[in-house]
């Protein structure tokens, strides 16, 4: 079923590009963005990233030269700066200890091995870990986030957990680039049509199949 959903979303958003969606190509910047976006909106993340870029610390080695207090001040626009600065310092140490981003990206460690290591870090939950795996570490993974679960619930009437929907999608779609693109398309669809409140059902490409458009999650 996810292959069908993917094809329909492709038709709805033919110009969608993962690179422009993220607004950045650098893998470490995506790691940072994945952490900073927790409990805030992307516009605040952009402000924090711009401050980090201006300070020359969008590199794990450079970031580690800062104290927690110095980093907190720089990322203040993203909010929750104490927790996020601690998480950024922790994952930067992990990246440096493993030899750097490119070494990790090209290593033989599986996505599940890296996922366990990421989840062991305080401040990194499943959604953040899967986002880092897919968009920064080149491993086949997809987030079973609120957008994805909402779409599935409204199409089928069936609720599912984060892990259940993640595994179901990955069992059907194996290619990393397809998983990246599918997740981006689901998020775009959720923002434009399949909204939590006041969904735009009349404009939705799934309107004829949607069983429960009014159910929020």
From TrEMBL:
Q: Which cofactor does it need?
A: [4Fe-4S] cluster
Per its UniProt record, what SUPFAM superfamilies does this chain match?
DNA-glycosylase
Please verify whether the record's keywords include Transmembrane helix.
Answer: no
Which lineage ranks, top first, belong to the organism behind this chain?
A: Bacteria, Bacillati, Bacillota, Bacilli, Bacillales
Protein name (Swiss-Prot/TrEMBL):
HhH-GPD domain-containing protein
Specify the domain of life of the species encoding this protein: Bacteria
> Which UniProt keywords are given for this protein, alphabetically ordered?
4Fe-4S, Iron, Iron-sulfur, Metal-binding
The record's section on Pfam families has: HhH-GPD
HhH-GPD domain location, by residue? 36-192
Q: Does the keyword tRNA processing apply?
A: no
Please name the source species.
Brevibacillus ruminantium
């Amino acid at each position: 079923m996810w292959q069908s959903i993917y094809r329909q979303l492709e038709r709805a958003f033919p110009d969608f590009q993962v690179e422009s969606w993220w607004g950045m190509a650098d893998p470490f910047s995506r790691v940072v963005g994945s952490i900073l976006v927790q409990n805030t909106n992307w516009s605040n993340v952009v402000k924090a990233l711009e401050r980090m870029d201006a300070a020359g610390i969008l590199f794990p080695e450079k970031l580690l030269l800062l104290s927690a207090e110095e980093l907190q001040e720089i990322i203040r626009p993203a909010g929750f700066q104490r927790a996020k600065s601690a998480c950024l310092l922790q994952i930067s140490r992990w990246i440096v200890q493993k030899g750097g981003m490119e070494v990790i990206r090209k290593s033989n460690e599986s996505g599940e091995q890296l996922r366990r290591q990421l989840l062991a870090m305080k401040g990194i939950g499943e959604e953040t870990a899967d986002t880092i795996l897919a968009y920064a570490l080149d491993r086949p993974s997809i987030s079973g986030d609120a957008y994805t679960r909402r779409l599935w619930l409204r199409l089928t009437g069936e609720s599912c957990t984060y892990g259940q929907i993640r595994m179901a999608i990955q069992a059907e779609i194996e290619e990393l680039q397809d998983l990246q693109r599918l997740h981006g398309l689901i998020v775009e669809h959720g923002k434009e049509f399949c909204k939590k409140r006041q969904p735009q059902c009349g404009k939705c490409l799934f309107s004829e199949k949607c069983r429960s458009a009014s159910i929020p999650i």
